[in-house]
What we know:
The complex is a heterodimer.
Chain A: H1 5-11, E1 14-16, E2 23-26, E3 29-32, H2 38-47, E4 57-60, H3 77-93, E5 96-98, H4 108-114, E6 123-126, E7 140-143, H5 146-155, E8 157-160, E9 164-171, H6 180-191, E10 199-204, H7 206-209, H8 213-221, E11 230-232, H9 237-243, H10 252-262, E12 275-280, E13 287-289, E14 297-299, H11 313-326, E15 341-344, H12 346-349, H13 352-362, E16 372-375, H14 380-388, H15 391-398, E17 401-402, E18 423-426, E19 441-444, H16 447-456
Parallel strand pairs in A: 3-4, 3-6, 4-5, 6-7, 9-10, 9-12, 10-11, 15-16, 15-18, 16-17, 18-19
Antiparallel strand pairs in A: 1-2, 2-8, 13-14
Helix pairs in contact in A: 2-5, 6-8, 13-15, 13-16
Chain B: E1 6-14, H1 21-24, E2 64-67, H2 79-87, E3 91-94, H3 99-107, E4 111-114, H4 117-129, E5 134-138, E6 143-146, E7 149-152, H5 157-165, H6 169-174, H7 177-185
Parallel strand pairs in B: 1-2, 2-3, 3-4
Antiparallel strand pairs in B: 1-5, 5-6, 6-7
Amino acid sequence: MGRTLAEKVWDDHVVRRAEGEPDLLYIDLHLLHEVTSPQAFDGLRLAGRTVRRTDLTIATEDHNTPTLDIDKPIADPVSRVQLETLRRNAEEFGVRIHSLGDIEQGVVHVVGPQLGLTQPGTTVVCGDSHTSTHGAFGALAFGIGTSQVEHVLATQTLPLAPFRTMAITVEGELPEGVTAKDLILAIITKIGTGGGQGYVLEYRGSAIRSLSMEARMTVCNMSIEAGARAGMIAPDRTTFDYLQGRPHAPQGEDWDAAVAYWETLATDEDAVFDHEIFIDAAELTPFVTWGTNPGQGAPLGADVPDPASFEDPQERIAAENALKYMGLTAGTPLREVKVDAVFVGSCTNGRIEDLRAAAAIVEGRTIAEGVRMLVVPGSVRVALQAVEEGLDKVFTAAGAEWRHAGCSMCLGMNPDQLAPGERCASTSNRNFEGRQGKGGRTHLVSPQVAAATALLGRLAAPADLSSNVAVEA
Amino acid sequence: MEKFTTHTGRAVPLRRSNVDTDQIIPAHWLKKVTRTGFEDGLFEAWRKDEDFVLNRPERAGATVLVAGPEFGTGSSREHAVWALQNYGFQTVLSSRFADIFRGNSLKNGLLTVVLPQETVERLWALTEADPTAEITVDLEAREVRAEGVRAPFELDDNVRWRLLNGLDDISITLQNEDAISAFEATRPAFKPRTLPAA
């Protein structure tokens, strides 16, 4: 019987297989950041162990890093200690690190792909749930806890429980103004925050194949929000073209050998998935969340749902709690929900295409009075590219704040946070209570919806702009 | 890792689904570089409400958390497990756990038990009516017991064996050093490296 993409990558990394035991899998690439690694390095020290493969390991600073005044000492002493701890650990154990101020610094899931380290058919792990991002390249990539970080540092392997496979087939063309973000938000609402549990998702179909690498990363990034172990897309010409020439992509004969291997990875025609769902791309519209988990979403054109409309009692209670926390009333059109802040950035939507898309909408316009818009590039490289294209000027001219690279307001570990009760349209990945700051209210949106929302001061799509906003001459 | 064989304790019934890792331990607590001292961060936002179940005096000293479905969704932060353990929880019962949280819990000796939602409902009803009611989680027998409840649960044999013996995963893996080295010798040259070849 044929095998799926995920099964092929898994099989090619089995170091040891024994009856009654989890497979021991080899890890090709281990990404580290400051938040989930200090206790792992402590564990190594306590046991007198070393990092087995420093040449398969790389660290970057992202979660705690400020996005203003990065040349000054970090104001928060606890954040400073955590960053200094990573720097010390990297030095002691010989791990490559890209610290604040370094040209390769940025959000770990933006940095890996842009360096060409994320490659098809590899296993990629990081102490961060959004490691699923790297699945866009046909890598088997997943988030791990700190105990597993220590395990990979010490052994370059992980014992892993078997997974099931789910195909999410999206056929057709995404309508104008509908993005990868709208697609993944719609998928999560369809299957729920636990719908992917135990599964590696494979996104397939013509709509997926026509996505750029950056859009594919947006889709795979949020696989974890559906509870999935990982999300993957078969590598193709788009993948190879993105990779070729990047600093860590194979070269010469190695490139040819690599491509020959990568071309064998796609799911076989006679492979069978444990579960399949189908989505018609043409039916999708801009999508936003109204609640406090990423499965609580709806088309922008819909109303805030009535909790009584949910049959499942747990979902009903969750919706009641969510509306209370979000300060929303059932029946209110989502387009009438006013926001205080807009955040463009994160490992979900902080890449150059995302910034271009948002900039194209705000260009020559001014964001609504009373709305604060933060634009945070996913990496220093993304920031430099944006500056070269003049996007920073477009944003600042519109009244937005242009910041330095990092995770920023996606989770507010640095000073970029919402105030209690503030409402934000955010291109990030989680709308959990307090995620962007204590008492903050988050609506997950695409970069395009974020930009249109900033201009109108209420949840909006670019299509809503023409009749409402005067374009400055 | 701490061994887990059997545990009996009073419960906290948490009638909420999708209890995400940001609720279990908010991000600002993640700046700590230790595995201890997270107890005050556990459910920090909800604990500001004096009626929140964890704040009720009759729940003091409870060690069994009975939660709604999709417990632990979200981030990979192992701090969520440490926070529950630092606070005093030994075991969490729910009808569904997020995968990464579950994996983290079992690597730290916090036993996460999957039960049918109807059993969770019965345990909620029992422990809400009688806060002194005790729940026993018996890993050897793979069974949860409480007044009027006797519920078997499943757990992978290998995971159970590691928990019962408090075994360290890394030591077990390092016994396979030869297999790891042999695998490394077969890795293709085109695989990515973060450092220049030595």
